[in-house]
Fold each of these.
Amino acid sequence: MAPPETVISLRDATATLGARPVLRGIDLTVGRGEVVALLGANGSGKSTTVRAVIGQVPLTGGSLELFGTPLARFREWRRLGYVPQRSTAAGGVPATVREIVSSGRLARTRLRPLGRADRAAVDRALELVGMRERARDSVSALSGGQHQRVLIARALAGEPELLLMDEPLAGVDLASQRVLADALREQVAGGSSVLLVLHELGPLAPLIDRAVVLRDGQVERVDHPERLHDLACHPHDTPEADTASKIETGLLT
Ligand SMILES: Nc1ncnc2c1ncn2[C@@H]1O[C@H](COP(=O)(O)OP(=O)(O)OP(=O)(O)O)[C@@H](O)[C@H]1O
């Protein structure tokens, strides 16, 4: 059987922001259909890792391949969907929920008008995050958690094969977290891969194939599903009890 396609391959990656070495030799692989969580304390390099993967932060060393192609030659950005760390869906720009979500099709449509398939993808994305009824509303009338849903729908509207999300659950209530977990499950069932930064696994825990814990710009350890399951179900029976509670509360230090 052929090995599963590697969607992200980051090897010994280093990166500097200002004068600070922020990534100090990160190895990270995400295969097709895999969901990988990046965990770690504030400032450990999670967002920078994701931003390096989408080419926003240049590597000073090591290598990055996307879908088997070195970054320098990679052009198929429409295969990626990115949800940035908490921001509002439209900084003061008057726009409806549907307009923001439709902008997620831009990489596919270039500037031609949306066709039937585009509109169907937008509808599906709105439905997945439970915002179909709010499609005509102005984004300025949304709560923080609803903004977050719109940003996720914008990424989903592009029908990405690789979804990168930076703290998608931040400030999102438990009911909305469940909605997002269902949306993600559906996306993964369709073959998408996901790399997401999390402080808490929450309702997403059952979806996670691997949790990569960063510390000071390096991979401290990688947890696999059995261990994640043990940590979630028997946090006090394992030698790592302390770590378990930290993962659940996001207080990894
Ligand atoms: N633009 C910048 N210039 C200089 N240093 C930066 C810049 N952005 C981030 N850093 C530093 O890089 C390090 C890693 O930041 P990063 O945002 O990747 O961490 P993180 O793990 O995502 O943290 P958090 O959980 O707080 O979001 C931090 O020490 C941060 O201060």
Amino acid sequence: MTTVLDGKKTADALMTDLKNTVTTLKAQGVTPALAVILVGDDPASAIYVRNKHRRAESLGIRSLQIQLPKTTTQAELLGRIADLNADSAIDGILVQLPLPAGIDEQAVIQSISPEKDVDGFHPINVGRLWTNLPGVVASTPYGIMALLAYYQIDVSGMNAVIVGRSNIVGRPMAALLLNHDATVTMTHSRTKALAEKTRAADLLVVATGRPEMITADMVKPGAIVIDVGMDRNAAGKLVGDVDYAGVAPVAGAITPVPGGVGPMTIASLMIQTVAIAKRRVHEQQ
Ligand SMILES: Nc1nc(=O)c2c([nH]1)NC[C@@H]1CN(c3ccc(C(=O)N[C@@H](CCC(=O)O)C(=O)O)cc3)C=[N+]21
């Protein structure tokens, strides 16, 4: 029997615990606060930002949505970030990616205070992660580790294969798995004989943005398959990077799309926002 790794159910369970933490923090005079900046009017980004806002509100986290027009200049955006960096009531700052053309994404990421960089994209946090030091970790890989932990899957010694080398998923995923004693192989669009590599995986994490590219013949029977994709197929249906119908019967465990990695990403953002806010309790006293 294939285990469906239910990200929605797991996120809900983790959020019940987190809500209690938020209540305790508020009683100590600290209201966790997350600022999300959205530049322009990309419809997909608007949906994610709305989901984050809803989740924050339901937990009692203060959620600031800062919507800026697509004509916003880089200098204006950096100015808004500087204000949020200086505001001691703000714990986490997230600038929704992608940004409109003409704005230098790295300049924006690097302008966020590393302590408030709740996305974990700042090079300081990336360096901390690869050095196995405490810091903020990118939400999607953090959420995948939390999902595996919830299902009591120990990755130590596993052959983990990652397909996709992005800064927001593939690379931080590799670092986290390595920190948890997996043997990690990174693959990407230039990898030769990809199926040979993926077939060696005990744990396969796919984040390519190519709809349903991982087919049953690329998966070892019994493997754990994590699908980070959020794509539309030719029929306009929301699908992942994994051919779910074909792969699920072969896999030992698999995440669905939707209801897998996506809800865990948002949960992770909330968990790390609250973790940053916790530090303020000590600063106050
Ligand atoms: N600075 C930044 N940080 C991010 O974390 C970030 C970003 N930019 N840009 C875009 C991606 C994408 N992302 C998702 C979050 C939640 C779902 C999610 O909740 N998905 C649900 C529902 C999806 C649906 O029904 O449309 C699910 O998979 O079940 C998906 C995708 C965060 N991202």
